[in-house]
Design a protein that fits this description.
Helix content is 8%, strand content 39%. The protein is mainly beta. The chain has a single domain (2-542), classed as 6 Propeller (Neuraminidase). The strands form eight sheets. Strands 20-21-22-23-33 form a five-stranded antiparallel beta sheet, with no helix packed on it. A five-stranded antiparallel beta sheet has the order 24-25-26-27-32. Strands 1-31-30-29 form a four-stranded antiparallel beta sheet, with no helix packed on it. Strand 24 (383-390) and strand 25 (396-402) form a beta hairpin.
Length: 545
């Protein structure tokens, strides 16, 4: 019955295909015809419109391809003083080799039913110049957060040129809104580097216990091969920011990536990240780790390992084409009693054949963690790019993509967006969000790209996904940002159990599995750092033997 519940949300044209394929991920026929796909419709709400940036407004480099009107990598936050007020943000007009023309924000005052867009001076396309701190060719990695008093903050990586290339620069910029996202301050620069370093994968978190405290965190890769986690904070509600400082340095040829801070009810803050060791080798390894601060970021603990990161990445099952997903980038959420959960892509449940969605939890503030378990509902196909949130009653929600409705037709990559929830971390119940849609229409940025992350938030008793998908309308307008506002039957814990979380059968990867993990890490670094291969080649020339 649960499978039939899922199918009611699929386009009717796919119902027969899905029933025949079951959970196996598609027909075995080599002549499967293409499926006619309709644009996404109600109850989904399209948030993004046509690009507000003119084509060719800035940022081109030799070999660059710009995907005008393509939106990727969204994030969203809900105003705690007015749950009808949402602010979303995303990359607009994605480049093939890093970043976008700029970031665009949108606000809703009716719980996500309607939206008003606004450009931001975080790059030259968005109106940035030397007078307002935004004179950069490209912007990337959007994030947004609300303080308990309803003040909103957004953050950007804004940069010009490839990493550590002559004339390049990169910065972390923050802007503040005191009116629910209607207007934004000129950006404040938290850090600015020239050709000696590259700043990446930042996030911003307002302290849930104190409206004066706001935290920004990112990784900073320098020309010596070090990649520490950098941190900056404001203690006066964003009026001023303290100087950025490293808070964890894993050493030469090692780095952090995907730093994200959450605040616990006891006042502690916790930073989760992936540590990549040997980032200049073909034998790189990585672990998901956390560090904790009991004094609002003034000092930090030694790192605690959540789990090995054994993600192998995602590819088109028919063609082998790379899908740039969330491999290597964990997501974390905190529950009402201070419980912490982390989700990520991981290959351990299929012995390295594909990634599933891994889940681990801590009930002691991040000091110890449960063994990873698989929580996606179809084990036979790749699942990728999870997002996580926790309700005030402790219900855990996770959204993710998978290929269960894909067919053998190599001209399409049919992809769906799913949701699963649990009140104990063991028993999980699934619901369908959207799809199928053709992922082959997505921009190609070191792989088919919807974003290294998507977003999941809550309004009342409903989980609310905020995400990007292709809109099945060809290549002139490849992707859009969508939201599923609260529904009469909301995304939340369903009656009936569809899956019990499963541990990995083999926790000791063999050589072939480890080689796939190492290759995925190099692919991740190549995707995250524009000009990564040239940077490494130069380092090999100048480093002593």
């Amino acid at each position: 019955m649960k499978r039939l519940h899922f199918l009611r949300h699929l386009p009717a044209v796919l119902a027969a295909t899905a029933l025949l394929s079951g959970c196996g991920g598609g027909s075995s026929s080599s002549t499967t015809p293409p499926v006619t796909l309709a644009p996404p419709g109600p109850p989904l709400v399209r948030v993004s419109g046509p690009s507000p940036y003119p084509a060719g407004c800035g940022g081109s480099m030799p070999g660059s391809i710009n995907y005008q009107d393509a939106e990727v990598e969204p994030y969203v936050a809900v105003n705690p003083t007015n749950p009808s007020n949402l602010i979303g943000i995303w990359q607009q007009d994605r480049w093939s080799d890093g970043g976008a023309h700029g970031l665009v924000t949108a606000r809703s005052l009716d719980g996500g039913q309607t939206w008003t867009e606004q450009t931001l001076p975080l790059s030259v396309c968005g109106g940035g110049d030397s007078s307002n701190g935004g004179d950069y060719a490209r912007a990337s990695d959007p994030w947004v957060t609300f303080s308990p008093n309803g003040v909103a903050y957004l953050i950007s990586i804004s940069f010009t040129g490839n990493i550590m290339a002559t004339g390049s620069s990169s910065s972390v910029l923050v802007s503040r809104s005191t009116d629910g996202g209607a207007t934004w301050s000129n950006p404040t620069t938290l850090i600015l580097d020239g050709a000696s370093a590259f700043n990446d994968k930042e996030s911003i978190t307002a302290d849930p216990n104190n409206a004066n405290d706001v935290y920004a965190v990112w990784d900073r890769l320098d020309d010596t091969g070090r990649g520490p986690a950098y941190f900056a904070r404001s203690t006066d509600g964003g009026s001023t920011w303290q100087s950025a400082v490293p808070i964890y340095d894993p050493g030469v040829n090692n780095q952090t990536l995907g730093n994200e801070i959450v605040g616990l009810p006891n006042g502690n803050i916790v930073d989760v990240f992936t540590e990549i060791d040997g980032n200049n080798t073909n034998n790189a390894t990585s672990d998901i780790r956390v560090i904790t601060s009991a004094d609002n970021g003034a000092t930090w603990s030694a790192p605690v390992t959540v789990a090995q990161d054994l993600s192998v990445g995602t590819t088109d099952p028919n063609t082998g084409a790379v899908v740039r997903a969330g491999a290597g980038l964990p997501q974390m959420a905190v529950g009402p009693s201070g419980e912490l959960v982390v989700v990520w892509q991981d290959g351990r449940f299929s012995n390295g054949q594909h990634d599933d969605i891994a889940f681990s939890q801590s009930t002691d503030g991040g000091q110890t963690w449960s063994a990873p378990v698989e929580i996606n509902s179809d084990h036979s196909v790749p699942a990728f790019t999870p997002s996580v949130a926790i309700m005030p009653d402790g219900t855990i929600g996770v959204s993710y993509f998978d290929f269960r409705n894909n067919t053998s037709n190599a001209s399409q990559l049919l992809t769906d967006y799913w949701f699963t929830s649990s009140n104990d971390g063991v028993h999980w119940s699934g619901q369908h969000i959207s799809g199928p849609f053709d992922l082959d229409l997505a921009p190609n940025a070191e792989g088919l790209f919807l974003g290294d992350y998507q977003a999941l938030t809550m309004i009342g008793q409903a989980f609310v996904p905020f995400y990007v998908q292709t809109n099945n309308q060809g290549t002139a307008n490849r992707t859009d940002v969508y939201v599923l506002p609260p529904q009469p039957v909301p995304l939340t814990m369903s009656r009936g159990i569809t899956r019990v979380a499963m541990p990995a059968a083999n926790v000791y990867p063999g050589p072939a599995f480890r080689a796939r993990v190492a290759r995925n890490l190099q692919q991740l670094l190549r995707a995250e750092n524009p000009g990564w291969d040239a940077f490494q080649a130069q380092r090999r020339k100048t480093s002593p033997p």
